[in-house]
Amino acid sequence: MKIFVVNAGSSSLKYQLIDMDNEQMLAKGVCERIGAGGAIQHKAADGRTYHAEVEMPTHSEAFQQVVYALTKSEASVISSLDEIAAIGHRVVQGGSLFSKSVLVDESVIEKIESLNELAPLHNPAHVLGIRACIRAFGEKTPQAVVFDTAFHQTMEQKVYMYALPYEYYEKYGVRRYGAHGTSHRFVSDRCADLMGKPKKDLKIITCHLGNGCSITAIKNGVCYDTSMGFTPLDGMMMGTRSGALDPSVLTFIAEKENMTPHDISELCNKRSGALGISGLSNDNRDLAEAAAAGNRRAQLALDMQRYQIVKFIGAYAAAMNGLDAIVFTGGIGENNPDLREKICNEISCFGMACDENTNHLRGKEVRISTADSKVAVYVIPTNEELVIARDTLALISK
Ligand code: AMP
After folding, report:
1. Residue 84 near residue 138, CB atoms below 8 Å
2. Distance, CA 285 to ligand 1 centroid (Å)?
3. Ligand 1: nearest atom to the Cα of 285
4. Which among 213, 282, 287, 335 is the best mutation to test ligand 1's pocket, defined by most ligand atoms within 8 Å of the CB?
5. Active-site residue (options: 21, 148, 193, 372)
6. Within 10 Å of residue 31's Cβ, how many Cβ atoms?
7. Is 51 in the pocket of ligand 1 (CB under 6 A)?
């Protein structure tokens, strides 16, 4: 049985086709510049590729290209859309309305749209993707939605509230929602499997470190706290995002530089983080190279990033009153042995040591703490598309 996984952005459309009989990816691709030209890059699992520059005024034309790539191009992997049993969509913001994945119907689409203000760049694009998908695949193919926020809906109110007047929570839903939930769920489940223990008995901290970074405390199998907040800007510093700040810094800079709320949002989301500190790049590889060559600000960005991870781990170990395992995932978490080793050394007080025989591995599922460590440390490559496909399959099998 094949499931088609879609991640629709405002001008892009990423997709994967997954064979659920063996959970192997059959093909993946991306449509870019939707609404301003258009291009598709498609790749079959056996290495065949298809690339085309085609006008894509809307997501509907993009899906027509995807259907062509999947069924007729030189990198086709199926002969007809009938082979696709269902479609699973990634949705960034499910607010307090969705605590699990659901099948799509009109009321679900309306609820996703009702949350547009909480994710203005994402939710409207997801709805465009869902509606275009219905046009491309027809009404009879079931569609499911999997929310980045759903895993975090188990947080207690004392954890998800901001200490602002309560009316803003009631009127506008201002609270912590978190993000990357699909990834945190996947790697924490894998961690419990690898440890051979029921997740209800474990306290795990998962560090999703990529261009966006979030850290989650998972107690007894459910999210207890997470670093991203009302939006993915909260928490630790990231590639271009500032992470948490004293709010007074923003009112101060806005007044000094005569900036609007929109300017401040651009500043914090696009010009801050590792890019803002280094003045060089948002990419950890560039920063590591520059730091090795003596660039002080690149080194500072890396030091700040590591310090903030350590601080979250310490805070969450205290919040859960214990810690059994730490998981690293995401482009940085999976590929940066140096960062992992330094973090293990800096929190050795918890009773862990890095195993140099396994820590040098990149992008592989592996335990990187020594056998006698009290806290186990793992690298677990994330696979959000597989979670979306699994949830979709479970929903249509019901
Ligand atoms: P992601 O958003 O998960 O794709 O992660 C992007 C981040 O992962 C960037 O900062 C990259 O520098 C980092 N990254 C990806 N591959 C590597 C690698 N081989 N070594 C070090 N960092 C990497």
Report:
1. no
2. 7
3. 12
4. 335
5. 148
6. 27
7. no
131, 77 in Cβ contact below 8 A? Answer: no
Is there a contact between 265 and 247 (Cβ–Cβ < 8 Å)?
Answer: no
> What is the distance in A from the centroid of ligand 1 to the CA of 45?
22
- The first and second tokens of residue 296, run together, are 């002080």
CA 141 to ligand 1 centroid distance, Å: 36
Triad 328, 333, 338: Cα angle to 5°? 110
pTM over 0.85: yes
376-379, strands of its sheet edge to edge: 222-226, 213-219, 203-209, 325-329, 376-379, 366-367
Q: Residue 235: CB within 6 Å of ligand 1?
A: no
Q: Which secondary-structure segment (H or E) carries 286? A: helix 284-292
Per-residue pLDDT of the chain (398 residues; tens, 9 = 90+): 999 999 999 899 999 999 999 999 999 999 999 999 999 999 999 999 999 999 999 999 999 999 999 999 999 999 999 999 999 999 999 999 999 999 999 999 999 999 999 998 899 999 999 999 999 988 899 999 999 999 999 999 999 999 999 999 999 999 999 999 999 999 999 999 999 999 999 999 999 999 999 999 999 999 999 999 999 999 999 999 999 999 999 999 999 999 999 999 999 999 999 999 999 999 999 999 999 999 999 999 999 999 999 999 999 999 999 999 999 999 999 999 999 999 999 999 999 999 999 999 887 899 999 999 999 999 999 999 999 999 999 999 98
Token pair of 314, please? 């310490």
| Ligand 1 nearest atom to the CA of residue 286, by list position | 12
Instruction: Decide: 336 in ligand 1 pocket, CB within 6 A.
Output: yes
Type of residue numbered 282: N
- Catalytic residue check, 46: no
Q: Phi-psi region for residue 180, left (φ > 0), alpha (ψ -120 to 50) or beta? A: left
Phi-psi region of 367 (alpha: psi -120 to 50; beta: other; left: phi over 0): beta
